[in-house]
Design brief:
The complex is a heterodimer of chains A (115) and B (242). In chain A, 76% of the residues lie in helices and 0% in strands. Chain A has helices at 7-10, 12-37, 44-50, 53-67, 78-94, 97-114. The longest helix of chain A has 26 residues, at 12-37. Chain A is flat and about 55 Å long. Chain B is mainly α and 242 residues long. Chain B has 2 domains: 8-168, no CATH class; 188-242. Chain B is built from 11 helices and no strands. The relative contact order of chain B is 0.14. The chains are: A mainly alpha (115), B mainly alpha (242). The interface between A and B is large, with 82 and 102 residues.
Amino acid sequence: MTGTISPIVTDKWQLWTVIVALGLGTFFLRYSFLGLIGDRPLPPIVLKVLRYTPVAVIPGLIAPAVLWPAATGGETDPARLAAAVVTVLTGVVTRNLLLAILAGVSTLYLAPWLI
Amino acid sequence: MTFSLSSPVGRAFLRGLVTSLPFLLVVVPFGLVFGVVATSAGMTLFETMAFSVIVVAGAAQFAAVQLIQEGAPLLIVILTALAVNLRMAMYSAALAPHLGATSAPVRALLAYSLMDQCFVASMVEYERRPTATVAEKAAFFFGIAVPICPLWYVATWAGVVFGQTIPPEYALDFAVPIAFLATISPLLRGRANLAAAAVSVGVTLALWWMPYSTGLLVAAAAAMATGAIVETLTERQKEPRS
């Protein structure tokens, strides 16, 4: 992991802004329809777009960390790349979160011995 | 509220508790790693605990800390982590027909503890028992949430306190990508999901030159639109045949 500390962490005011804003924002997202709209139906187009948020955000979020990990100074690491591929394949085939994590972690630790 | 474990509401709560057991195995390592990652980003025990207690959303917390470590500015950290949590609005919408009739304080508690696990397990239960009362449905939901939330706090605490003894050879930095990939890979089925994931990765990497991961927000919006469009096109293709 990187040794430098972000100004957000050193400036306590900024860090607490992140914590409180995320807390309030997340609560609002969770409360939104349940609390304010109750049991009235939603336009289907809204639901259709929202359905893709996990697969739209998370792959992009971690792709750079898979290809150019900070821990290796941004150089592609075969062990990390292999672990990512094995995790995805196990998850897609078994649809089991725990199995996917176990397969990915085993690959990460075993790959340096095998490559 | 009078509460007996042998009443229908009590039994629904117990069913929730039993259903939550396998989830606990996922929550503990996820919480531990959050504690470790937040500490190595320079956060104190109190700040890290506040994060887990106030936000209670693993994926968004990881996203925030990852961007903080990359040196992203305040607004980008907040917007991206909230984008990760946009799915919660979808969960909220899907639960509203089942739980929307509960009292306002109960709905606030439901919202606070609304996590991926509570949502998925509850939707399966409501489909299985469509005649359950609103109170039974809420009790089942809380049966899942009551063990998971405190365990999330405790695991975070343990990660902060014991995590620093873990040596760098264990490549803990990579626990977060693995946890994220494992969470979404069961969803990677069908053309629409695959297209959305491909656009998300492709556009993020293509826009990597943009400062502070702002390309990710563009990529996420493009990927959501792609998913919805591909789904619509796939439905249209199927219609004449059915």
